[in-house]
Amino acid sequence: MTRTGQSSLRHLLHAATALCLSFAAVSTASAADKVIMRINFTPWGMHAQYFGGRAQGFYAQEGIELEIRPPSSGQQNEVFIGSGREQFGVTNADAFVKARGSGIPIVAVMADQPDNPFAVISLKKTGITGPDKLKGARIAWFPANVVGMLDPVLAKGGLTRKDVELVNVARGSEVQMLAAGQVDGLFGYSFGQALTLEMRGFPVNVMPVRDYGVKFYGTVIYTNDALLKSNPDLVKRFVRATMKSLIWAHDNVETAMQEIVKVSPDRDLKLESRKLRMIYDLYNVPDYSERFGRMTDAKWQSSIDILAASGDLPKPPSPKEMYTNAIIDSLDEAKTLAAKIKTPAK
User: Fold this and answer.
1) Could you read off the pLDDT of 96-148 as tens digits, one per residue?
2) Please, which residues have CB within 8 angstroms of residue 66's CB and are 6 or more apart in sequence?
3) Are the C-beta atoms of residues 177 and 169 closer than 8 Å to each other?
4) Cα–Cα dist 192/39, whole Å
5) Counting Cβ atoms within 10 Å, is residue 312 exposed (0-12), middle (13-18) or buried (19+)?
């Protein structure tokens, strides 16, 4: 064969190789599972790991093309996922219990916040330093709140619900109302409204309900029963990517938070970063001493009982039907993250 022929053959082989690689790339891209995740609020600090992890490529590495959608109204989030129209969600435990109790076929595959973040928050100048100081207090209250979470706090001060006035407010107005003195306190997040008020120059007292014996999950990641049974590999890959995202966000808080600011430009980078660091502090509890995300019958039963006592749960579900630890127990990342959260987030 002439040199010209050999050169042409080499070019042909190179072209064929490039074409094969191109087809392989297209095939790999087309093989990615398209997954929708529905979050529980408009994006803020608590969602940084999902947006940050997606930007870092952790979900793509697991063969997942992730779309993150904002919350819908009512129980539509849980309905979308229970019906299989969407695949995963992060939700507050009370909404999850109510949905499961109403027959929506969803299952928690990982706990996010092991304890609920609710607290009674008041301005320092009001002198409400403990539950006994709440008598006659007007407390800003969202209609979706679980009143049973407030009862143990009141009981510690020798009070009942009759001793306070719950003022129903629209979400977003509670901070302004407290700052203006229109209410004496609000029922909100210890790492949410409390930090916002402090940033605006209003020092606060915070009484987390978990400090008064309330055992109630915070947020959980869930899917539908059918997907867990038919495609456990996808569920495992999704949870593993989420774990990797949490591990990375622990050491890259502000970089992760920049992804939140991109989708929620009204969020303050420094404030939201403080909130996320507080959330990582709350992760460091005995529940997660061995594996991050593990759940127990006992805490689910307590969550169910508090909802039922509030009159918010006509048909209590069984704890065992609500969750599985199988995915968490199969992932080394759950151990890695459990060790990581023993140190402050950076």
Assistant:
1) 999 999 999 999 999 999 999 999 999 999 999 999 999 999 999 998 899 99
2) 35, 37, 50, 54, 59, 60, 241
3) yes
4) 17
5) middle
